[in-house]
Amino acid sequence: MNLVMQQCTGRHPAAGANAPAAVRGLSIQVQAGEQVAVIGPSGAGKTTLLHLMACALTPVQGRLSLNGQDPWAQSAAGLRALRKALFLAPQVPPLPPRQRVVTAVLAGCLPQWGAWRSLKNLFYPQDIPAAYAALKQFDLGEKIFERVDRLSGGERQRVGLARSLVCGASLWLVDEPLSALDPVRASQAMNTLTESARSREATLVCTLHQVDMALKHFPRIVGLRGGELAFDLPAAQVTTELLEDLYAQHLEELHSPVPLDRPAAAQPAPVAMHCR
Predict the structure, then answer these.
(1) In what order do the strands lie in the sheet with 23-30?
(2) For 69, what's the count of Cα atoms within 13 Å in the CB-facing half-sphere?
């Protein structure tokens, strides 16, 4: 899926109507099948950018185009149809604690399924082999029938990522997918995510706190600071000087280590988000 943003301005999904814009006058173009990492210090506007791309937020100003279509010029039915091609993975997956992992993964299929099949999935998982195959790629195959509340924070995060492998979307928007993972799991997750998107010819835009992972796994890096575009460059052209300037007031974030996999209880509370 092609994506074009022209001078887009938007507010954070949890912000009030009169709050300052989190993204201001941003213009960016992503070609179908491209893989882009978005980096920047806390408060740079990364999450807001993904929500604008996912049609979960209406731009305050500017224009968003997906495959040449303006989502907000569509009818309600047209917008729903367009959202079926989008997959948004928040940093903290909104997984019901008593839900089985298999059901949580297959929730990624719900936009593609009709109402009746979606309802049946709550009582009997409709595609167990697909869920198992997705979980296995994130080294979670043995957890398929576990309850979500028995998983660690890192396992929950990988369950959320496994949804991308069953969703059937052509644009994947992934927010901070490594925040609860140790270095080994983080590298494994990024390999799986990028290779799966490539094999499905899906466009991937991913925000990352770990700059080293962004440079290692993505050919193109977008730097955000204060809600504005700082740079948009091939990974090979992102220098130490550019990174230090991007994180000038937050150098501890630039050099901070990847956190260890923590229990679910140690994770921040999920924030309700409209993902589709």
Answers:
(1) 23-30, 3-10, 61-66
(2) 15
Rounded CA separation 20/61 (Å): 13
* Contacts for 249-255: CB closer than 8 Å, 24+ residues apart: 249/41, 250/41, 250/42, 253/41, 253/42, 253/209, 254/211
Q: How many helices (H) and strands (E) does the chain have?
A: 10, 9
Give me the helices (H) in 62-182, please: 76-83, 101-106, 115-123, 128-137, 153-162
State residue 257's pLDDT score: 53
pLDDT for 123 equals: 84
Tokens 């980096």, located at residue: 39
Across 80-105, b (16+ Cβ under 10 Å) vs e yields: eebbebbbbbbbbbebeeeebbbbbb
Give me the amino acid identity at 4: V
Quote the pTM value.
Answer: 0.88
Cβ–Cβ < 8 Å for 211, 224: no
CA pair distance 220, 68, nearest whole angstrom: 22
The SS3 call for residue 146 is coil
Q: Distance (Å, rounded) from C-alpha 176 to C-alpha 159?
A: 14
Question: Which DSSP category does 69 fall into?
Answer: B
Residue position matching structure tokens 């398929």:
144
User: Per-residue pLDDT tens for 160-212?
Assistant: 999 999 999 999 999 999 988 999 999 999 999 999 999 999 999 999 999 99
Give the other-Cβ count within 10 Å of 203's Cβ: 25
**Strand partners for 171:** 86, 203
Cα→Cα distances 189→18, 49, 155, Å: 38, 22, 11
